[in-house]
Amino acid sequence: MRFVIVTGMSGAGKSTAIKTLEDIGYFCVDNLPVLLIEKFAEIARDSSFKLDKIAVGIDIRNGEALNELTSCLAKLRTENFSYEILFLDASEAALVKRYKETRRSHPLSRGGRINEGIEKEREKISFLRDIADYIIDTSGLLTRELKTEIDKIFLEDKAYNNIIVTLMSFGYKYGIPRDSDMVFDVRFLPNPYYVPELKKKTGNDEEVQEFVMNCEDAHTFLDKAYDILKFLIPLYEEKEGKHQLVVSIGCTGGKHRSVTLTNLLYNRLTELPYTIRVFHRDITKDSFVKGE
């Protein structure tokens, strides 16, 4: 039997997670009182229950009873009851934005500032984050992307690392992405923009890719960028505790060289056991050409 405890920050996607688990065959109970966990576990072990996939949602709505959860989980362990903890997290900025968009109040804000409620909640449930088997930072995830991550863990049984790497192409003329953790500059490569038949195309087009990769330096960059990320990603995860890593690759306009190298680096990194996303921030800018 697989018994999953879904928890985390309010607004980080717990409802979506529980709904996704339900869709893939889990018997789900949201907002289960802490004091009923042991009883529920006892029922789940009963052969007459006939369910082998169960998920329960436990969060700050339990109030002061949440303080009893540590001893409750320890008791389950001593009774050889196996469980997994899925923790949904998000940055303060992302959570505040979501609350403002939905016009909901945070359960701990009590009519005050949302930020204060988030800070209180993060402090109260930090112990769950520390013991979680899986941590998904949803700050930059779309709903469908969160569902994909949950499917990987609980449906496809794939090896999961608690870090999501976003490869982002961008144009320096529009500024360096503020959320970048690492930035690579590929403006040293020949620019397809000055080739008339390639000017309106992008790094998603085969002709542009061939032009960019016709330069030996492009291959050298790709090899070295792959090597350094293969080395650094696990260190960011293990030593820094990061769960989101944004690697930005920039050229002048963000349409040709950076897009090409971002796509090719993505193809290589997907061979590693991490969740890799790709995003081309400026690829559609400057699509209008004067005089046409």
Q: Which stretches of 5+ consecutive residues score pLDDT under 50?
A: 288-292
- The largest beta-sheet arranges its strands as 2-3-1-4-5
For the record, the CATH class of the largest domain is Alpha Beta
* Spatial gap, N to C terminus: 64 Å
How much of the residues is beta strand, in percent?
Answer: 15-25%
What Rg do the Cα atoms give? 23 Å
CATH superfamily of the largest domain: P-loop containing nucleotide triphosphate hydrolases
Judging by the overall fold, what is the CATH architecture of the largest domain? 3-Layer(aba) Sandwich
Shape: elongated
The CATH topology of the largest domain is given as Rossmann fold
Count of domains: 2
How would you characterize the largest beta sheet?
5 strands, parallel
Label the structural class.
Answer: alpha/beta
User: How many E-type strands?
Assistant: 9
Number of helices: 10
Arithmetic mean pLDDT: 89
Helix content: 25-40%
Brief write-up:
The protein is α/β, with parallel strands linked by helices and 292 residues long. The chain is built from ten helices and nine strands.
